[in-house]
Amino acid sequence: MQARQRQNSLIGLRLRERRQQLGLRQGALAEVVGISPSYLNLIEHNKRRIGGKLLRDLARALALDPGTLADGADPALEQALLAAVADLPDHGAAPERDRIDVLSTRFPGWAGAIAGQAARIAALEDEAEALRNRAQHDTVLAEALHEVLSNAAAIRATAEILVEDGELDPQWRARFHRNLLEEAERLSDRGTELLRHFEAETEAATSSRDQFFIAAGHHFPQIEMHGEAAIDALLGSYGDAVTEAALRAYADDAARLPLGPFSDAARAADFEPERLFGLAGGDMALVLRRLAQLPPGEDMPDFGLAICDAQGALIYRRQLDGVGMPWIGPAPQLWPLYRVLARPFVLEAALLDSPGGGVFRTWSVSQPRSDGAELQATMLVRTVTPPSLAN
């Protein structure tokens, strides 16, 4: 009964909010639906119950679905809001939990933002806890950091002696120079070992998704035809959450830029991204991704693709022969990707010389993800001169 009363009270609230949004006076709305302004005022202040024909007439006058007026607040959103304040410290004014339906009904956008921020905070706290645990239990990382700090301290001490004592005996100066070289080499070697350690872990964590996409040639005809409905059949008993998330992102791209019209437009544009951005409403990253998702064919060029997060960590790649794109480590081939992180929404086209002698063209842009949660950088790579011909 109490829940029903709360739902009825929300009807009046929604009516008043919608009327005010449209700039209608009570008298004007009351005249349209054939009631007195005083009666409408009682309805809006929840002093009269409403239903049937009058509810439908008011909804029609306000361009609303009658069900929208009568329905209660979104239960999932309410639960997310309650979870957001569950562990809040005492700051004097406690959240009004008994009025959470009013918040989610009157301001669904703000309510969703609060719930989203709370989920983001929880994810970051879990990530920080995982990093703390790793720092405590990863012996390889602990030993490596200890040695790196020791090398750095030795280099600094030696450098200070060389700088502060200008009258060093030549033999001692040569000895200190040799020490600097040896400590720098040890520091470099240890850094390389660390990179290999992280590279191996990252490869292990992402290899299942990588292998799944490589086996499919980074193109999924089932998703192109049937959208997300094809994902379960594609995965089968695979059950990998990372791969599933990648497939759902692929399905979203395919829905926004359907393959047939896009592939025709891409051929007509000679697969030049700059000539295709209008198809995606200016979403440059979407066009770059869709070009890398085109099916293989004699008239289709090969593309490589790399996507990194706002911190520069590579989160997706489609390798292209001649262009090495390691998950971790310094890679000049990825510099165009990193550069655009400092200039969101600015497309950068560049020529890239690969270590193998080939020449490649890149298009890079950074922009928030489709859900607006975080900046990502995307780089498309196309061969200009293959390494075999360059050599």
The ordered H/E elements are HHHHHHHHHHHHHHHEEHEEEH
Radius of gyration: 30 Å
Mean pLDDT: 79
Strand proportion, as a percent range, falls in 5-15%
What is the rounded distance between the termini? 81 Å
Backbone structural class: alpha+beta
Biggest β-sheet description: 5 strands, antiparallel
Give the proportion of residues in helices: 55-70%
Structure overview:
With 391 residues, this protein is of the alpha+beta class. Helices cover 58% and strands 10% of the residues. The protein has helices at residues 2-22, 26-33, 37-44, 52-61, 66-70, 75-84, 100-106, 108-137, 139-164, 170-215, 221-226, 231-235, 241-256, 259-268, 284-292, 335-339, 387-390, and strands at residues 303-309, 314-318, 348-353, 359-368, 375-385. A 5-stranded antiparallel sheet has the order 2-1-5-4-3. A hairpin with a 4-residue loop joins β1 and β2.
